[in-house]
Write a structure and sequence with these properties.
Helices cover 18% and strands 30% of the residues. It has seven helices and 25 strands. Strands 13, 14, 15, 18, 19, 20, 21 and 22 form an eight-stranded mixed sheet that branches. The radius of gyration is 23 Å and the shape is globular. 43% of the residues are buried.
Length: 426
């Protein structure tokens, strides 16, 4: 067999990867003859960053695709292969976004006309080239599993990355994932957003994210409250019909469940948006009234219960301002499940109605923490707690399994050990 040089070997490897559809063609040598046109037609990863799917209102027929680029792209679009929309191209809208002294072009494409319960491929095209293919699976209207991640805010996003990737690997059938607010520790810090997106790389390009805004999304670099501009630009969630409140709260359907995502930052937003709570409550009443789904689930960042803090006798046990504002509406609407976050601890409270224990009320679960910011030994157990995660607490994630007759939530430690389970039957 004729020996080849190292340079020739690398060149051959680059050509083989390209023929196999392997994205970039890195080579210290030249591109093999006859492959130059194909190499130039590949849209490099440096132009398509943080490619993501975002939940749509109707996930059986549509999906929102987003990405960003440090350079302006010409004719940006999403192309489909397979399924009802095979061969269709959906143009992307462009927005130049600057925050924390860094500018990027944001691209958003609304993919519509899909068939429920199908799997197809999609890719990004721009500048006369196309990227690699990714998977897009639509809602079939039946049973599904979702991953639920509590606050991922961190000072080092390594733990968040490991937790998210391991959870996704253990649950390859998950249809989408939820991040319960406080995605980052500081909403203006572009480096933290970069790390957040890096942590879920390989997940949010194949299943959509349903994000919540937390109070930390409203902080600037000086830890003063500001508009949550980065969060609002990075996630094109379904519209809520109120232009001033666009992307702050929203709803979507998946399978037999109607999800309502709330903005609980009424304290942070009271000066800039003093009427936000009343507008959102009016929207909520209409939103839950108009759904025909058998299950109603509320996702809210701040917790409706108030906990005592060790060595802080002035803080009484009871219900938070958010709980007082929303729990009566949940009772009236027949909400089945309420998931909250913010306190970085996992607690199962069972069913609550009219601010007291009642099997007729919604099931309330405080989801825990998915990042590395923990509050060991801070909270005094609440009288309504029925289960508290083992102390000292570590990070965790949850799964939500839904079918027309049951909702089941399970809580897991980072190593995959289950520590709690709660189920509702109909």
């Amino acid at each position: 067999m004729k020996k080849i040089s190292r340079r020739q070997f690398l060149t051959l490897c680059a050509g083989a990867a390209l023929l196999g559809g392997g994205g970039w063609a890195f080579s210290r040598g030249r591109i093999l003859p006859g492959l130059r046109e194909k190499a130039e037609a590949v849209l490099g990863g440096e132009k398509v960053q943080a490619l993501r799917q975002v939940v749509a209102r109707d996930n059986a027929a549509s999906r929102t695709m987003m990405w960003q680029s440090p350079v302006r792209l010409s004719s940006p679009a999403v192309q489909l292969s397979g399924g009802k929309a095979d061969g269709k191209t959906f143009p992307a809208k462009e927005e130049l976004f600057t925050d924390d002294g860094v500018s990027a072009y944001l691209y958003t494409a609304q993919v519509t006309g899909l068939a429920g319960g199908t799997t197809q491929k999609y890719r990004v095209s721009a500048d006369g080239a196309s990227g690699g293919w990714h998977t897009l699976t639509t809602d079939d209207g039946g049973a599904f599993r979702a991953l639920i991640f509590p606050d991922s805010q961190s000072n080092d996003y390594t733990d968040w990355k490991q937790l998210a990737q391991n959870a996704a690997e253990r649950n390859p059938d998950a249809s989408f994932f939820v991040n319960m607010g406080d995605l980052v520790d500081n909403g203006e810090d572009h480096g933290q957003w970069r790390d957040w997106f890096d942590a879920v790389n390989g997940i949010l390009d194949r299943i959509p994210v349903a994000p919540l805004m937390g109070n930390h999304e409203t902080y600037n670099q000086q830890w003063k409250v500001r508009e949550p501009v980065a969060y609002l630009r990075y996630f094109a969630v379904p519209e809520n019909g109120n232009a001033e409140d666009d992307r702050r709260y929203y709803s979507f359907d998946y399978g037999p469940v109607h999800f309502t995502v709330l903005d609980t930052q009424q304290e942070e937003e009271k000066e800039a948006h003093p009427e936000l709570l009343s507008r959102q409550q009016a929207w909520f009443r209409e939103d839950v009234r108009s759904t025909d789904k058998p299950w109603k689930v509320v996702l809210m960042h701040k917790d409706p219960l108030q906990y005592r803090i060790h060595n802080r006798p002035e803080r009484a046990e009871g219900f938070s301002d958010e709980g007082k504002a929303w729990m009566p509406l949940f009772d009236a609407a027949g909400v089945d499940l309420v998931l909250s976050a913010h306190l970085h601890t996992y607690r199962n409270r069972g069913h609550i109605q009219n601010f007291q224990r009642s099997e007729n009320g919604p099931l309330y679960l405080l989801t825990g923490v998915a990042g590395n910011v923990r509050y060991p030994g801070l909270w005094v157990d609440h009288a309504l707690d029925t289960y508290v995660a083992p102390q000292p607490e570590t990070d965790n994630y949850l799964t939500l399994d839904a079918d027309p007759h049951a909702l089941t939530v399970r809580c897991f430690l980072p190593d995959g050990r289950q520590i709690d389970e709660a189920s509702i039957q109909k």
